[in-house]
Design brief:
By secondary structure, the protein is an alpha+beta fold. It is built from two helices and nine strands. Strands 1, 2, 3, 4, 5, 6, 7, 8 and 9 form a nine-stranded mixed β-sheet that branches. It is globular and about 40 Å long.
Length: 129
């Protein structure tokens, strides 16, 4: 039993060293990897009585280029389809579901060398009756 515990102890120690080593290892591509995934804006769509709306269409349009991205809300009334590919210019975001439309909201982007982050980072759009 003691030898078995000792073996598992060494395996655990080895695994933790390997995991730690991987996380802290220098890599020429580490910066590129962290920049690969675009930053998304979280948009939640609610009805006028506060219910989450599944299947609402959310459209964001760059105010300078007029380029748009459209997403559809999930069962929690949320989409993250709108991302930094519309940056750095401000965007207008609206939601529709059937004949119901939200008011437009504007989002700005704060950019660094790697990503542009939406300000605000989360929007709640309410569909009007």
């Amino acid at each position: 039993m003691g030898k078995q515990l000792r073996t598992y102890g060494w395996l655990g120690l080895l695994a933790s060293v390997l995991v730690t080593g991987c996380d802290e290892a220098p890599s020429a591509n580490r910066h590129e990897d962290s920049c690969a995934e675009p930053v998304s804006l979280r948009v939640e769509v609610l009805s006028s009585d506060g219910a989450h709306i599944q299947g609402a269409t959310v459209t964001a349009t760059n105010l300078e280029s007029n380029v748009s991205i459209t997403g559809v809300t999930d069962d929690r009334g949320v989409t993250t389809a709108i991302n930094e590919t519309l940056a750095p210019s401000a965007i207008r975001v609206m939601a529709t579901a059937g004949s119901h439309v939200s008011l437009a909201q504007h989002v700005e982007w704060t950019c660094d060398a790697c990503h542009c982050t939406p300000v605000p980072g989360t929007l709640t759009l309410e569909l009007k009756d």
